[in-house]
Amino acid sequence: MESGLFLAILVAAMLHAGWNALVKVGLDRFLAVSLIAMAAGIVALPALMLVAPPQPAAWPWLIASMLLHIGYNVFLVQAYRSGDLGQVYPIARGAAPLLVAVVSAIVLHELPSPLATAGIGVLVAGVGLMSWRGGRHAQKLERRAVGAALATAAFIAGYTLSDGIGARASGSPPGYIAWLFVGNGLVMFILLLVTRGVQVLPALAGHWRVGLLGGAMSLGAYAIAIEAMTLAPIALVAALRETSVLFAALIGCVWLKEPLSRWRALAALTIVTGVAMAKVG
Hints:
Blueprint: H1 3-22, H2 29-44, H3 59-82, H4 85-107, H5 114-131, H6 143-170, H7 173-196, H8 201-205, H9 208-229, H10 234-241, H11 244-254, H12 262-280
């Protein structure tokens, strides 16, 4: 992978970690995610006048991605209601790139080099270790939480593959990105009104500044990832995006003063090793 593209994906991972940190804005998770999705759509709206629309072949993938994003948000919220972060996050974020790698190899016949493939495995292992908060004692896994987390991983893999294929077919990746975010924002707004009613809008309005910042970061993070998937194997990009957990840990240590345990340090080293293998491969 070229160095410029590699660094761009790492920047996307940093932005992803940043907007996820902003989700803690005093709202419940569904409202916070909805706020950022709608704000990202607003930020992307002016771009519709500046970019070419996607080719017709890309629209089924774009619509599928919007639907898959709804499923992702719904099942993620359900997973966090049924289990804690230590159970849900490593399953959802760790399983997703593995699913992407398997499906892209079978369906797209797209397989990274052996070293890069091994790097994906090492990186995913590091993500799992980091997500378990550094070797916390194993807890009883709630069957419902595990099921919801696996469903979340499937939706992540689904929209990642859909967007990778759709952007390649679009003839205009920037146009695909702009329409995707505007569409996602509109769909989440409708879903929010259907599930929570108009009475939630004043509560969201009080957090509009954080919403716009998070929306801009979310747009930037995934726009880079989609563009990268038109230039590199989708599985490799999907795995490198998960370095966001490393940046999230750094944010926690530097700004939130969370302790850096030896397990977190080991997880960070594992992730960096996987990233290096993927880059060289």
